[in-house]
Please model this.
Amino acid sequence: MSVRDLSSVLAAAKAENRAALVGYLPAGFPTIGDGVRAVTAMIEGGCDIVEIGLPHSDPVLDGPVIQTADDIALRQGVRIADVLRTVKEVTAAGAPVLVMTYWNPVDRYGVERFAAELAAAGGAGAILPDLPVEEADLWRGAADKYGLATVFVVAPSNRDERLAKITAAGTGFVYAASLMGVTGTRRSVGAQAEDLVRRTRATTDLPVCVGLGVSNAEQAAEVAGFADGVIVGSAFVKRLLDAEDVETGLAGVRELAGELAKGVRSRA
Amino acid sequence: MSTQETFLPDLDGQVPSARGYFGEFGGKFVPEALVAAIDQVAEEYEKAKSDPEFAAQLNDLLVNYTGRPSALTEVKRFAEHAGGARVFLKREDLNHTGSHKINNVLGQALLTKRMGKTRVIAETGAGQHGVATATACALLDLECVVYMGEVDTQRQALNVARMRMLGADVVPVASGSRTLKDAINEAFRDWVANVDNTHYLLGTVAGPHPFPVMVRDFHRVIGVEARRQIQERTGRLPDAVVACVGGGSNAIGLFHAFIPDAGVRLVGLEAGGHGVDSGEHAATLTAGEPGVLHGSRSYVLQDEDGQIVEPYSISAGLDYPGIGPEHSWLKDSGRAEYRAVTDADAMEALRLLSRTEGIIPAIESAHALAGALELGKELGPDGLMVVNLSGRGDKDMDTAARYFGLYNGSQEGK
Model:
């Protein structure tokens, strides 16, 4: 997989006149092995693209749900090598795989080393939400060298000029944060999202996917009405956290992916 | 009168660079959601820095509310235990609210008003920054929310009560190590969600640019005053200036005016906890590696996967796995030196200053005092030191009473 596979999956969804479904789960959660099964269930249930979280000790952009999952993964001793192994194992299910994490683990592991090993594992790219464009040269160089996408996040508070600067530096797609806040499920996805997608599109031909707060088919359909992709994270994590046992949790993940897949096909 | 010019930003400084780098340290590693707000802080601070009205407002508060300039006290009986070197304490403990923190807080609170924001959030470890922030918010009619690790709300219960008395909402943080680092994480999460009306009043010289330079500028007055006072009193510059280092705000405040004085050693004391070799410490510059935490590149206590290692110190204010980027730069350039002081040595210094001088220091500042005892022996009787007494020890009486067994009638303090 590479940035090209990612782009063709997004193009295929567009050709079907629907939004792509992007699912997120942290690696190593609930365990390394069951984490692989959970991501695979997301893909089999209907996710077109997946993001694997590399758990971090200090997830300042994550709400309580993903914090809890990261904590569980880290307490079991998940390492970067395990995350890369997870990427490699889930690629068998056929969807492009991105890694989402904070900058320090990548910086510490070695930027070039991380990019090389992610590409070797079959990863399609990375999302590094605390790495702004101004600090991203080193990463972008490595990502280009290994054919990886660099997905930047844009926020409702970004002015048009800055949006243009960010989208000019990104590849694969643009991650539009639906609201000002951390990850977590929300009752509604605000009007800010649609406006941000419109302003982002004015600066780029890259697909624009919307994340933060989306947790059900209805919201997915609403977002699919104006975005190229719908990103869901905390709702998947919650299915695993709330389940009585792993098998129920995995079934819940598969079921949610199926519902959301219908949602992105019924554009509001 | 020149002694009343207390807001003294470094207008000629060559560092940091435009992007906020001190050498390879600093920068701005933040999510896009915060970029606009941080740019606004930087722009507003640039304007305020050269606005005589801002300086006049801040100077008035620093003189008539805080009580600046703070005293410089020679401590002769204490110095007998420091190899006979002369020791002067820069008395930031005598500021209103009991620590140096108020210098920065008043500056940023005025800035908050200038930006038209109505809500202030802050993190606090020992509670000194939280108390100072709650104080400024009461004075300037700003809503105030303070995040504090759950461990710290317990060991600094007095300061929690003070903040609440001042009208602040204190939120205990139960994630991670439940200390300062986690309080900062939670403050960032709040800021991302409420950035429209909220200023994050960061309490140390860490964080994304422009915080390290702005907070440094607001504390620069400590060193500028000390440099003038020590020369008036002794006719010369000191051999060393000494301060404790958690995030590094009181230390950079003291050090900065002395950086051009090549003959003055800048000595920072980190929290050595149970000893650096024990793994239970917060000695970031002694045992850390460069990394990115809370928005800037600096030394960080971390493992080989870049996960932050939970720090430990008896002092809530020093219990932090990061450090301001300017200190990392001063360390690598060799201009400043940093050492670790154990809990035990700091507590011994706390007792010694109390018994020899009638001054009970904060446990944070006691780390600097312990460092001075050692450094004095190296300098000998001709030595001259200025030690930053960054805060008073009232808030630490419960910890100290338990440590020395004072509650059960022990006279251990003797």
In short: Chain A touches chain B through 39 residues (CB under 8 Å).
